Inverse folding.
């Protein structure tokens, strides 16, 4: 692609495209073709300041704070409809910039609007309370007020979906927003925001600053007018953001990584379990925070399950993500490709055996794309790095266990706690395991199901706070308490009662 035919993506501030104040740009690549297809504005602290000021102005004056919650809710509904109307273009951009499968994106974009519809419906249903005071002559109530300017920082693996999880409740609560998408996949976010404004979102309510983490993300987190940071990404960055935010006493929610166990018992329906294990790790090329990257399998069915998982994963069609029939797409970024291949080396050096894959894909249909063969390691011990560290790619570590007690111990022997799968036909065991496994979500006889209605988030190093479900809107509210004296006698001013 020539410099001339390349797409250009400026930032988006206060309702208009915003060129980088320092005049710098960077390139974004198509992971299947392995070539540059667009240039994106490389923002700096100066651009962050302009964007945050726009969001702050939109929060304090203009149409946004004057709208009733019902009006805001109705607007969110229209925003959801607008996304549905532009689903094809948005999906195409995501496929090109991220390498996500068309087969996945066409489905994903059809349910992204649900977040706007659901939180739009919730916008005028969050109520304060009248407090049953134990003091005579007073009346007190609480109000739910938007936190204020919110920074949304997103990763590259599912830019539009993960943005919707944050943006819909933030807007429903009445916040204004500055988004910092991943430097690897900024295009779909910019296009989405243009769609929202075309549908009636007032200028300045949502702004986008693109660029690198340290150059844009850091200044955004530290900006004095930003009151809340909603972050999805790696635990290392999340920890850093949490430290920065703590210094300024800002609200933070963090959706971080995982090393989720998919636990198959001897009494499981093995047909379903094998499907669930394969989809848990190889869907989206394993580049999901909830990837079931540790297969814990009862020793009595270990060999059979491994044989069947290897067989099924071995049939995966790799290649052009635009092709409806492709089942495993490329790795999204060059550094991630290097990281996945490095972990494959680490696993081998630790003594694990590659029962499938274990190298970069060289199939003709993969062209010069960044592909890794679906990889399954057996002979893994839970203390190995391949069982403890997040690979974020199509690499499964298989670990046998002897009984329920050991399955729980291995599952919980992880610094992460995002998701877990339990495959069993014993209802009592399903309940026991759901209780004992430390994770934000447990799926029984299924894996990867998510919904706008179902709270999602992690325990331990997998994060803080919850997205989705009615309670998620609370992440974007402050509670104010109002006291009225209705006739309380004045009391001793030097004593608090
Ligand atoms: P990352 O942490 O490298 O980057 C995430 C975002 O943070 C990017 O926009 C990046 O530019 C920004 N960033 C980087 N340094 C920063 C800094 N110093 N200050 C502020 N912002 C900074 O993560 P990634 O590689 O883009 O995404 C993959 C990770 O995301 C994986 O660990 C994965 O598990 C996690 N993830 C979690 C969830 C979830 O919901 N729990 C969902 C998807 C991905």
């Amino acid at each position: 692609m020539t410099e001339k035919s390349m797409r250009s993506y400026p930032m988006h501030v206060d309702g208009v495209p915003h060129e980088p104040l320092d005049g710098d740009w960077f390139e974004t690549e198509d992971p299947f073709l392995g070539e540059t297809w667009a240039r994106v504005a490389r923002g700096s602290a100066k651009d962050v300041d302009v964007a945050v000021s726009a969001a702050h102005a939109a929060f304090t004056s203009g149409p946004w704070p004057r709208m009733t919650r019902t009006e805001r809710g109705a607007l969110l509904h229209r925003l959801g409809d607008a996304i549905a109307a532009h689903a094809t273009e948005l999906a195409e951009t995501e496929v090109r910039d991220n390498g996500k499968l068309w087969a996945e994106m066409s489905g994903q974009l059809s349910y992204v609007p649900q977040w706007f519809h659901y939180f739009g419906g919730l916008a005028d249903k969050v109520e304060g309370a009248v407090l049953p005071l134990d003091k005579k002559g007073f009346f007190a109530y609480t109000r739910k007020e938007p936190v204020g300017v919110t920074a949304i920082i997103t990763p590259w693996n599912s830019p539009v979906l993960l943005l919707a999880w944050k943006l819909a409740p933030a807007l429903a609560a009445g916040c204004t927003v500055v988004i910092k998408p991943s430097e690897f996949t900024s295009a779909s976010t910019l296009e989405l925001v243009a769609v929202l404004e075309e549908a009636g979102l007032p200028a300045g309510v949502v702004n986008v600053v693109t660029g690198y983490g340290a150059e844009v993300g850091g200044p955004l987190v530290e900006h004095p007018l930003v009151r809340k940071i909603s972050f999805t990404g790696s635990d290392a960055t999340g920890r850093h953001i949490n430290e920065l935010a703590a210094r300024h006493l800002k609200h933070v929610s963090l959706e971080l990584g995982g090393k989720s166990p998919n636990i198959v018992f001897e009494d499981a329906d093995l047909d379903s379990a094998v499907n669930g294990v394969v989809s848990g790790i190889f869907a989206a090329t394993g580049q999901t925070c909830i990837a079931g990257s540790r297969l814990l399998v009862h020793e009595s069915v270990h060999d059979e399950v491994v044989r069947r998982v290897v067989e099924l994963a071995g049939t995966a069609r790799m290649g052009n993500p635009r092709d409806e029939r492709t089942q495993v797409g490329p790795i999204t970024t060059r550094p991630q490709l290097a990281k996945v291949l490095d972990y494959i080396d680490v696993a081998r050096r630790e003594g694990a055996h590659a029962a499938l894959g274990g190298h970069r894909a060289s199939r003709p249909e993969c062209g010069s794309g960044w592909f890794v063969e679906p990889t399954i390691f057996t002979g893994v011990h839970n203390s190995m790095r391949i069982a403890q560290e997040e690979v974020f790619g199509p690499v499964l570590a298989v670990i046998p266990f002897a009984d329920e007690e050991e399955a729980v111990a291995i599952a919980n022997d992880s610094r992460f706690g995002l998701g877990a799968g339990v495959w069993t036909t014993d209802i009592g065991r399903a309940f026991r395991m759901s209780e004992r496994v430390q994770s934000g979500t447990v799926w029984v006889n299924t894996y990867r199901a998510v919904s706008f209605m179902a709270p999602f988030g992690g325990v331990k190093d997998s994060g803080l706070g919850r997205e989705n479900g009615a309670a998620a809107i609370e992440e974007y509210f402050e509670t104010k308490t109002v006291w009225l004296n209705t006739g309380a006698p004045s009391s001793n001013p030097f004593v608090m009662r």
Summary: The first strand starts at residue 7 and ends at 9. The chain has 15 helices and 20 strands. The chain has a mean pLDDT of 97.
